[in-house]
């Protein structure tokens, strides 16, 4: 038994997320004591036959070269309803009695769980009511409705939607379908791990994002127990957004800890309270949890789009972000043959545009500069020529003649440009300075 054990001790609020957690030495898994077993996951796989897609496991030459080890991508972004969530939702709902099915189901989500529940309900012929917060991305809202669920917008956060969904369940006797803190849901998500082992039986490390913890809990049970039967060991690494990382502190303290706030582009894992069951399993089986920034997530999205031709949502890209940012390099063990779970692909087009720009900027391939100059003919042409001579590409130009920082006859020109990387950006800035200008890079 490891030092960090989940207990029933009341929640503690943690003002600042911990940067990472690495399993202390010692503590063999004790599967008989876990709330989900390998047998349950294997039965869940049978339940999902003909329902969940067997998503591809693609080798990534680009990532393998970048991190110096063999890397494969488990493409749950190509799953039905756009994420792994349909697995757990369907397994949980398939266990309902006829009487329970007749009462209907209710859930709350800002996206992936909503679509998973809606699709599962449609397949099982169950009436579904989904509460979603106001301001939810329109594509996710419409996709949930397209699967046949009744969608009710309530509150401004998922927590408010969740409270209303639970109130509705109590009032109407509908069956509440939790997003992660449920044995059947965890077992369904764990089928992802079995599929990885089917295709890549010699996998050494599996990396995935963590929100509430259902995916990593189920996958860890499947990987660890199935590998143990074969006399092997598989390491499991979780990744959270740095500003939504409740798991490292919870694992360190051995109890569920609640973040004061979460804010990240990775809305699919923006969860401030870990599930109690997932935390208990993670304390037994997960080897490490690391964190990544939003800029690193955006850079991973661009990498996957450019190099693997895969559209992945921010929450699904955090594992790749951890590899590219070097977060897995000093955990005390070699990765070996690695699989990264791309957990979802439901990204709002507007967020994709912003993420691509942020990712290019983080990689030094998109630069915005503000240049003060005198308002006289020919200045813009001169600056444009200098930028063109350095082989950068101007995307947008903004001319400002009025402002508190401008003197009479002064102008600020703001230029967005594409470059080949950080070194090329520095060359562009140096060329402008050599011509007598004072470019100021903007964030």
UniProtKB/TrEMBL annotation:
Superkingdom field: Bacteria
The entry's keywords: Lyase, Pyridoxal phosphate
**Required co-factors:** pyridoxal 5'-phosphate
Q: Reaction catalysed?
A: L-threonine = 2-oxobutanoate + NH4(+)
Which residue ranges does the record assign to the ACT domain? 368-443
| Biological process, per Gene Ontology | isoleucine biosynthetic process; L-serine catabolic process; L-threonine catabolic process
Record's family?
Belongs to the serine/threonine dehydratase family.
Q: Which PANTHER family does the UniProt record give?
A: L-THREONINE DEHYDRATASE CATABOLIC TDCB, THREONINE DEHYDRATASE, MITOCHONDRIAL-RELATED
Its EC number(s): 4.3.1.19
Enzyme class per UniProt? lyase
What CDD domains does this protein map onto?
ACT_ThrD-II-like, Thr-dehyd
Q: Which InterPro entries match?
A: ACT-like_dom_sf, ACT_dom, ACT_ThrD-II-like, Ser/Thr_Dehydratase, Thr_deHydtase_catblc, TrpB-like_PALP, TrpB-like_PALP_sf
Source organism: Micrococcus luteus (strain ATCC 4698 / DSM 20030 / JCM 1464 / CCM 169 / CCUG 5858 / IAM 1056 / NBRC 3333 / NCIMB 9278 / NCTC 2665 / VKM Ac-2230) (Micrococcus lysodeikticus)
Q: Where is this region: Disordered?
A: 1-30
Q: What is this protein's function per UniProt?
A: Catalyzes the anaerobic formation of alpha-ketobutyrate and ammonia from threonine in a two-step reaction. The first step involved a dehydration of threonine and a production of enamine intermediates (aminocrotonate), which tautomerizes to its imine form (iminobutyrate). Both intermediates are unstable and short-lived. The second step is the nonenzymatic hydrolysis of the enamine/imine intermediates to form 2-ketobutyrate and free ammonia. In the low water environment of the cell, the second step is accelerated by RidA.
Q: Does the keyword Lyase apply?
A: yes
Task: Report biased composition (Polar residues) as residue ranges.
Answer: 1-11
Keyword match Ligase: no
One Pfam family recorded for the sequence:
PALP
Q: Which GO terms describe its molecular function?
A: L-serine ammonia-lyase activity; threonine deaminase activity
Q: What is this protein called?
A: threonine ammonia-lyase
């Amino acid at each position: 038994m490891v030092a960090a054990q989940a207990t029933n001790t009341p929640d503690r609020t943690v003002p600042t997320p911990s940067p990472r957690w690495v399993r202390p030495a010692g503590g063999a898994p004790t599967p008989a004591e876990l709330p989900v077993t390998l047998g349950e996951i294997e039965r869940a796989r049978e339940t999902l036959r003909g329902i969940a897609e067997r998503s591809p496991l693609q080798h990534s030459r680009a990532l393998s070269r970048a991190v110096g080890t063999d890397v494969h991508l488990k493409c749950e972004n190509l799953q039905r309803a756009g994420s792994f969530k349909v697995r757990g939702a369907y397994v949980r709902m398939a266990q309902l009695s006829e009487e329970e099915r007749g009462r209907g189901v209710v859930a709350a989500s800002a996206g992936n769980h909503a679509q998973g529940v809606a699709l599962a309900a449609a397949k099982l012929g169950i009436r579904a009511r989904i509460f979603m917060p106001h301001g939810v991305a329109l594509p996710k809202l419409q996709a949930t409705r397209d699967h046949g669920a009744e969608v009710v917008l309530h509150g401004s956060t998922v927590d408010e939607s969740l409270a209303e969904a639970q109130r509705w369940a109590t009032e109407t006797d509908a069956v509440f379908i939790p997003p992660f803190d449920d044995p059947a849901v965890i077992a369904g998500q764990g089928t992802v791990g079995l599929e990885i082992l089917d295709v890549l039986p010699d996998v050494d490390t599996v990396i995935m994002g963590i929100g509430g913890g259902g995916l990593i809990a189920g996958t860890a049970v499947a990987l660890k127990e199935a590998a143990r039967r074969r006399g092997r060991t598989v390491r499991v690494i979780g990744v959270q957004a740095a500003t939504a990382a409740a798991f490292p502190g919870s694992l360190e303290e051995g109890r569920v800890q609640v973040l004061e706030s979460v804010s990240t582009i990775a809305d699919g894992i923006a969860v401030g309270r870990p599930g109690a069951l997932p935390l208990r399993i993670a304390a037994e089986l997960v080897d490490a949890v690391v964190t990544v920034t939003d800029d690193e997530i955006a850079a991973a999205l661009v990498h996957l789009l450019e190099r693997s031709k895969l559209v992945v949502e921010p929450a699904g890209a955090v594992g790749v972000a951890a590899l590219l940012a070097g977060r897995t390099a000093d955990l005390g063990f070699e990765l070996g043959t690695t699989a990264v779970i791309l957990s979802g692909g439901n990204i709002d087009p507007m967020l994709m545009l912003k993420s691509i720009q942020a990712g290019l900027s983080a990689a030094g391939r998109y630069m915005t500069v503000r240049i003060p100059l005198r308002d006289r003919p020919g200045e813009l042409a001169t600056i444009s020529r200098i930028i063109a001579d350095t082989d950068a590409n101007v995307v947008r130009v903004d001319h400002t003649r009025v402002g508190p920082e401008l003197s009479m006859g002064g102008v600020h020109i703001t230029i967005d440009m594409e470059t080949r990387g950080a070194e090329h950006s520095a060359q562009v800035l140096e060329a402008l300075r050599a011509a007598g200008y004072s470019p100021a890079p903007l964030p």
